[in-house]
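Problem 3 from the worked examples.
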Amino acid sequence: MKTDILVIGGGIAGLSFAIKIAQKRSDLRIDVLTKTVENESNTRYAQGGVAAVWDFDKDSFQKHVEDTLDAGDGLCKQSIVEIVVNEGPQRVQEIIDWGTRFDKHGEDYDLGREGGHTENRILHYKDLTGWEIQRALVAESKRYANIHIHEHYFAVDIITQHHLGWNITRLTPDIECYGCYALNKKTGEIETFLAKTTMMATGGTGQVYKNTTNPVIATGDGIAMVYRAKGRVSDMEFVQFHPTALYNPSGDNPNFLVSEAVRGFGGILKTPDGKEFMEKYDPRKSLAPRDIVARAIDSEMKIWGSECMYLDCRHLDKEAFYAHFPTIYDKCKSIGIDPMTDMIPVVPACHYQCGGILVDEIGKSSIKNLYACGECSCTGLHGANRLASNSLLEALVFGHRIANDTLEHIDSQEIKKGIPNWNAAGTTDPQEMVLITQSTKELKDLMSYYVGIVRSNVRLKRALDRLFILYRETEDLYNTTTISPQLCELRNLVTIAYLITRSAATRRESRGLHFTTDYPNEQPFLQNTIL
């Protein structure tokens, strides 16, 4: 397959970028790969909303910038924060024009507030904002004949000079991307996609942990592919744990998210005996930034020896609660919890990867002809901790900027010739899937216990030792058996686990989402970890 533009990932980052290109250039072919179906992405699972300055009588760009910098704990790149905040409202208006619906009170948008925000600025659609945005983007993409969405294609590796016989290292100048090899999950064949420009938009890494709000497809594929291709990756230690995933003893994968907007609406965190506890940790109480709230809940769980804490919504108006959070209400009821009479059991769960593929202010990675956008990228916006609902905004702003840069250069680019087809010689079908499933389970356990909300040098060392064993076993399996989605995901998760753990071991301080008992007080480190 030869194309002008290859997009790996079909969420808000990938589709908004593709639509922008298609609007201006109907002559360019755009191919979008998604490893499941077109409606499935990390975007779809975003409950809370998208943050943007909308009410200029009460809010301002400066306030949004300051809130983002405060949450990022000294590691945000201020120029990027200002770009995203200032350009954000225009990008949000565009998806409204494409058919995205946000809740209103009369003619005005119903602006919510979440932890870390000093003003109400969250546009939302009930508690299904991501689902609504995904719906609108898929519908808009179908209006353009030059956008081709390929379902059930799993990108295995990006193609660089390595596949032409070069010895590529991290010091090699001018590494170039020519496209990717992708597994057609329906036929089992590896197909070659060659492109002038490639955009990585593969979402997050949540499945590296046992408890996560991310969908099962969030296995860090894009970040792992770029790292294997010797591209630069940054700030992987900053893994955001959402404080309030629904605790369900019977187990859910992914964990059901109880949106931060519930606390913005008036929900209060309490201990099992019904007493508030957040005032011990932060004067903002239940509306403190996520890293603080997650650690507070984790601390209280250890103090109580409990598997969860509780979110009390019993004092809220039932009709208003259901109007804002119908999905949350129905989910609670389905497991025997009535939010109007029972406190909701909650537990922190892996939610968002603040680090990723290192990119500049227009989304360029360290590899030529390769952009990255959305959760798989590291722009400098989030720093050490993402401010709630900034992620969808970031994807829209950078999708737009990448589209503009692509259009400036696409006519001078060419599709690389002489790329070899995938070589599967010497491999056989795997005899035992248990080797893959058990390694995946082991990986999730060691990351959850050793590289979770609270870390230490001893835990990180133990994690790295075990990860090296898992890496060798997985690579042996990869080199001797035929490719399967499960094996590729395990391979990517092992890489992601290494990047998180290695970055965490490098940062000898506690900052933002990275908290270590060996360095509990912040030190003047204030620099990015780049691998």
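Problem 4, a separate protein:
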Amino acid sequence: MKYVIVGGNTGGAGAAARLRRLDEGAEIVVLERGGYVSYSNCSLPYRLSDTVDDTQKLVLNTPEALFAAYHIETRLFSEVVSIDRAAKEVCVRDIKQGRTYRERYDKLFLSPGARAILPPIAGIEKADVFTVKTVDDVARLYAFLRDGNRRRVSVIGGGFIGIEVAVNLREAGFQVSVIEAAPQILRTFDDDTVQILQKEMYDHGVDLLLGDAVAAFEGNDVLLGSGRRIPGDAVVMAVGVRPDTALAQQAGLACTERGAIKVDANYCTSDRDIYAVGDAIEVYNPLTHHAMALQLAGPAQKQARQAADHMCGRTVRNTGYIGSNCIKVFRMNAASTGLTAAQCEQEKIPYDFAYVLPKDRVGIMPGSCTMHFKVLFEVPTGRVLGAQAISEGDATKRVDVVATLLKFGGTVDDLRDLELCYAPPFNAPKDACNYAGLVADNLLEHAFRQVGVAQVRELVEAGAYILDVRPKAMYDAAHLKNAVNIPMAQLRQRLNEIPKDRPVYIHCRVGQTSYNAVMALQGNGFENVYNVSGGFLGICYHEYFKDMTQKREPIVTGYIF
């Protein structure tokens, strides 16, 4: 059996290694058009800050090492230009030698990845525009920025690559502007949680320009649709990628409307002897029951293994993908999994959320940090739909827990009842996951009602009755402008001061004491009371970035963080 693999990075290298383990006698040939095989795509931005202090450290394997370990023949600078499905051959262009030849296959594996999008913007051909997609890309950008007095970089696009590039360039001392046409960065986070990350960018001196698109380039200066000019010495284009499927389309393989290669549950294309994985395909989302694009290394490696298994006659159980992801934004560790609120609304899934702000470990432990943790769940089933966590502490652990639950169709009751490790340096007896499950359970039981931090500005501007149950010293330090302060310790003695003929919105610092206040008021005959999830701390995080960048009137007398 002869396997020919097109693309030698995440998917291709993974499939080659798996095929060798399953078939010692097979002939395996990997054809890679670039100069590297099996490199760490996700680490590329970290070269810019010298977190990765040598470009060669990004390269995880070499053709020589692959041959020695797996007896796999890897040919670099070898571009597959066409597929002859009838003859079961590919036409290969040797880029260095300038010649073409044909290579026979029994099974063909496509892992061509995706190409960075370079939109046809006026003046782009005269600007120093870079992408960060390959080792060569990042090496060129690194060298360019350090050649001469180049200090200002404009990053176009606020997705994962754009933000990671911006963070690493800022940490390297460059002046950085991020331009994003959408109203927020990182759309795997909701508006209420992403504000924490946008504040972090702002606090570290990144000029974050949202809701504004690039209109043109004048040299390396960026002209925006708003008329603003962003001066710069270089431009990094990170507006997304497009599946690199021209080869598949020319060969007549079925593709989706969005240009991805169509595959079945075994990653087999419309030709039973050709498989495809990675950025060039779409995957099944078991939460929405729809296909989706997913440019992540972890899923690509899993797909490669399963495709190789199926090639060798093994049974594949494709459970789909939920898109778990994480990112480090300066001090903040952020992670998300499953669906966002916007996706729930788009899919018309009835949902609610639990937004809690516990500590990531016992509060008296050194390094204890507040965690912003949001879990979305279906109403009325309680099925968990997604989660987002942001903290200077261990945010990814909590999202990993929810991601595991999602794969097994878990509910908020399961989240509530999970038995997780506890010791004061690592966790609290009631983990953030348990805490969110308890809150969600109470919401499903209609034990109380809530409003989110995103609704508070509207309440303040409408003159709603907002009750602040924090101690007076905390209230005096900073509070919502029209909030009434009745500390929790005095609440039961001052019930006559609280109106019963209008809604009462109650907050504390993070949402726990105010929940207790809600329950106390309900127990005393108050029927129209709401807890403000996230509390005053969540409100401050939600409001700060927009207040600072939009120069709008704050709804708070001061911010606490």
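Solution to problem 4. Residues 255 and 262 are 5 Å apart (CA to CA). The mean pLDDT is 97.
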